Every structure is written in structure tokens, then in C-alpha cells.
């Protein structure tokens, strides 16, 4: 009987470890705007491949980047049209070559029209989930810049939003071959989601055994 009891307790230890090691979804960066928070700068995208917008994030723990959302406006006539999104991530500084990049075709991008307005323009919300093979693994305490471009969309402008003071995350624009910071209060209207690993709680065998006495 004792032998069977020990086997049963061992199984409980494994289950507890597996449960506590499970991962959970988390927000890495959330700067999506609402009416009244829109900045004065809209970054124009086009077919030249030269226009990008970027913003920085610094994870507190190791994590993966798995989801992306941004807000933009269509300044032309009719509905918004584009061929896809291109994302890049930089470390150290912008312009030194990305450490990660991915292309998402338009068919994999979920685009919805929001009720919010930026001036006379309707705001669109683009979002997509990355394939697991395309996840970016970010290290804690490291500052990264995520940059994106709406491909072949001459009428699309990515929004900036005022979400804080003059400290913290700032939006950057790439145009005519160089990066420049956008204003004192301009943050990119962007969201990043990912997974942060859960903690494994160490519990002694003696303590667990005592629970079954």
C-alpha cells in the first residue's frame, strides 16, 4: 500500500509542475488611440517602399511577439486597399539592419472600420496573428524598435497618438532614406501582444506528501 501511495504522490508532483509552467497571453505594448488622442502627424505610405513608422518597446521579462494591431486612415476615395504588411524589429538603434522581419499578405490581415474619426477621415484597425514559425523572441531588459509598412497603399496613412508626456516611447518615421523622431508627444497607434512564460513554483516533496497523510 505504501508503494502505491508513493507512486500516486509522484504523479501529483508532475501535474503541479506542468500546471504552473503553463504560459499566458500578455500585452507588450498598447498605444491604440481613441477620439481626442490622435496626434497631428499621419505617416504616408506608398508603393516606393521608403515609408515606415516605428516605435520602441522594452519587455520586463523574456517573451515572444505574436500579435500586431495598428490604426490608420484612408485618405483616398472608396475603401482601403493594400497588398500586405511588412514588419521589422531592430535592436541597438534604428537603421542598423533588422534582427527580424516578416511579410503578411493582405488576405491574412483582419481590417475593420472603427467609428472613431481623425479629422474628416474614418479610422481603420488592422490586426493579424503571426505563425508560430515567425514569432520573435525578445529578451528582458532590451529595447527594441518594431517598424511596419503598409505595402502598396498610396492612400493609407498610419496614425500617431498622444498617450503621455514627453518621456517614454516615441514614434519614428522613415522617409527619403533616413529615420527621424516624430514630435514631442507622438506615439505610434500600435498594439503588440505576445506570451510571457509563467513561473514554476518549487514545492518540496515532503510538503506535498504531508497533504496526503
Task: Provide structural commentary.
With 213 residues, the protein is mostly beta strands. The chain folds into two domains: 37 residues; 173 residues, Sandwich (Jelly Rolls), CATH 2.60.120. It is built from two helices and 15 strands. Strands 1, 2, 4, 7, 8, 9, 11, 14 and 15 form a nine-stranded antiparallel sheet that branches. The two termini are 13 Å apart. The N terminus is likely disordered.
What oligomeric state do the depicted chains represent? Answer: single chain
User: Which sheet architecture does the biggest sheet show?
Assistant: 9 strands, antiparallel
Global Rg? 22 Å
Number of separate structural domains: 2
Q: How many strand elements?
A: 15
- Can you tell me the residue ranges where pLDDT is under 50 for at least 5 consecutive residues? 1-24, 199-203
Q: Return the average pLDDT rounded to an integer.
A: 77
Amino acid at each position: 500500500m505504501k508503494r502505491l501511495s508513493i507512486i500516486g504522490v509522484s504523479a501529483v508532483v508532475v501535474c503541479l509542475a506542468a500546471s504552473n509552467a503553463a504560459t499566458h497571453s500578455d500585452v507588450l505594448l498598447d498605444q491604440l488611440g481613441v477620439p481626442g488622442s490622435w496626434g497631428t502627424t499621419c505617416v504616408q505610405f506608398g508603393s516606393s517602399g521608403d515609408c515606415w513608422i516605428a516605435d520602441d518597446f522594452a519587455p520586463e521579462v523574456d517573451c515572444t511577439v505574436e500579435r500586431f494591431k495598428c490604426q490608420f486612415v484612408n485618405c483616398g476615395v472608396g475603401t482601403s486597399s493594400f497588398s500586405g504588411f511588412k514588419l521589422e524589429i531592430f535592436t541597438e538603434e534604428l537603421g542598423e539592419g533588422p534582427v527580424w522581419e516578416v511579410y503578411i499578405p493582405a488576405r491574412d490581415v483582419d481590417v475593420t472600420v472603427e467609428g472613431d474619426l481623425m479629422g474628416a477621415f474614418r479610422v481603420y484597425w488592422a490586426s493579424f496573428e503571426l505563425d508560430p514559425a515567425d514569432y520573435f523572441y525578445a529578451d528582458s531588459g532590451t529595447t527594441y524598435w518594431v517598424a511596419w509598412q503598409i505595402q502598396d497603399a498610396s492612400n493609407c496613412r498610419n496614425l500617431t497618438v498622444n498617450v503621455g508626456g514627453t518621456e517614454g516611447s516615441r514614434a519614428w518615421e522613415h522617409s527619403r532614406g533616413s529615420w527621424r523622431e516624430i514630435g514631442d508627444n507622438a506615439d505610434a497607434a500600435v498594439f503588440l501582444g505576445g506570451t510571457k512564460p509563467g513561473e514554476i513554483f518549487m514545492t518540496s516533496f515532503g510538503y506535498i506528501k504531508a497533504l496526503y497523510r
